[in-house]
Amino acid sequence: MYDSELPLWHLFNRLQAAGLPLGIGEYQAVLQALRGGFGLADRAALRRLCATVWVNSPQEREILDFHFGQIFLPPVKKGEGGKGKGESRPQQHWSRPAIALLLTVTLGTAIAQVLARIQPETPLPQPEPTPELPEPTPTPGGPAVLPPEPQPESNRLPWFIGAGLLGLTTAIAFWQWQRRRRNVPVQSPNSPTRLTQILLHNTDEIQVAQAMQQQQAPTSAQRRFFSQAYFPVTHRQMKQSWRYLRRFQRQGRKTELDLAATVQRIGQQGLLLEPVLRSPRVNHTELLLLLDTDGSMVPFGRLAQNLAETAQTAGRLRRTTVYYFHNCPGAFLYRDRYHLEGVPLPQVLANHDPRPTVVLIFSDAGAARRGMNPTRIQQTQLFLQSCQARFGQVVWVNPLPESHWSETTAAEIAAQVPMFGLSRQGFQGAIDRLRGRS
């Protein structure tokens, strides 16, 4: 299967390049919706479906509308191209066989016209006796009238017919060859019918899309470890791992049946007077997510964004707070990735309950530059001491593999806090450590 046979594949790639946080999970969700019959009615329905699944803000909707309009042709409006009011005429597209047929017929006609003007060479006639001309007939009161001389027969008509038939035969043969060569029904890639046929006949489009993404070569040195379309931990795997981060406590109105207590009461009273109810379990875990997105962490910006998005939407946590920093957390943490809205570190720590709160730090810890910075080590140690003194569980997730930590700042920081590489096993290990499991 080629990339042109994957529905919405070009639109998905362009939206990823424009900065939308899309992964294979979002692409699969749109395909499942298309199989269910959504978005196949017309162009507007397909746009609404893509916006529903892929768009989370008005800015992203503008990006989607722009690239959607670039890829999908606008529909033909009524009243355009027709003679009468309200009539519509579909736009005609000339195919290659039709163009070749037209050019061949035109060339054959031109050759026929040239040949028709050329006088063919004929053998010299044998001398024949000159026939005696009849005597002119005298007319009363005027000059004598001679009879008309015989005209030679013209042979241009057979040449014109032969050249025309030759051109027409050549055109028909070329057209038939083109039909056999391109024996594929012509359909618009933007039509819902084409999308439906692809979805019905290609059931492994997700695996093909994943394979195509992994085969794409990096476009810059910053994508040394992974390309823009492939991550060591996918969007779906992040969602699954966040859901394991839970500490249940019973809270709220008593709405659940306590089966054991009800059976015990029946045994004591001898009959069932009323069931025993209890409060439902609620996840009380609060997450403090600290992201480093500047300097050497710029190539990993998409990963940081995926971590924040999946934690907030799929983690099912009681509370998720995201802060940003540069190199190491200092006196201020920032609510935005551009470091415009700063919050003092003591205020951040005081705003979180120490019992249900866990801390996850995402940074390369200096491993990307392969250097040793004593100042950074000291500042990071002070911050870690403040967090570990207030919160129970603090982990560090490094986007670089463990083989790149040796003889760098990351190795010294890893001795102060549990540090995990950003792989599926490493991220699951960090979640288990936040749950209190070693």
How would you sum up the global shape? elongated
Return residue spans where pLDDT drops below 50 for at least 5 consecutive residues: 78-93, 184-190, 200-205, 214-229
Order of helices and strands: HHHHHEEHHHHEEHEEEHEEEHEHEHEH
E-strand count? 13
N→C terminal distance: 45 Å
Please give the structural blueprint.
Blueprint: H1 9-17, H2 24-35, H3 43-54, H4 58-71, H5 96-117, E1 137-139, E2 142-145, H6 156-181, H7 192-201, H8 205-215, H9 235-242, E3 248-250, E4 256-257, H10 259-269, E5 277-278, E6 281-283, E7 286-292, H11 301-313, E8 319-325, E9 332-334, E10 342-344, H12 345-350, E11 357-362, H13 374-390, E12 393-398, H14 409-414, E13 419-421, H15 424-434
Parallel strand pairs: 7-8, 7-11, 11-12, 12-13
Antiparallel strand pairs: 1-2, 3-6, 4-5, 9-10
Helix pairs in contact: 1-4, 2-3, 3-4, 5-6, 9-11, 9-15
Describe the overall structure.
The longest helix is centred in the middle third of the chain and has 26 residues, at 156-181. Helix 3 runs antiparallel to helix 4 (58-71) and helix 9 packs parallel to helix 15. With 438 residues, this protein is α/β, with parallel strands linked by helices. Strand 9 and strand 10 (342-344) form a beta hairpin. The two termini are 45 Å apart. The strands form five sheets. Strands 8-7-11-12-13 form a five-stranded parallel β-sheet, sandwiched between helices. The protein has a two-stranded antiparallel ribbon with strand order 1-2. Strands 3-6 form a two-stranded antiparallel sheet. It is elongated, with a radius of gyration of 40 Å. The chain has 15 helices and 13 strands.
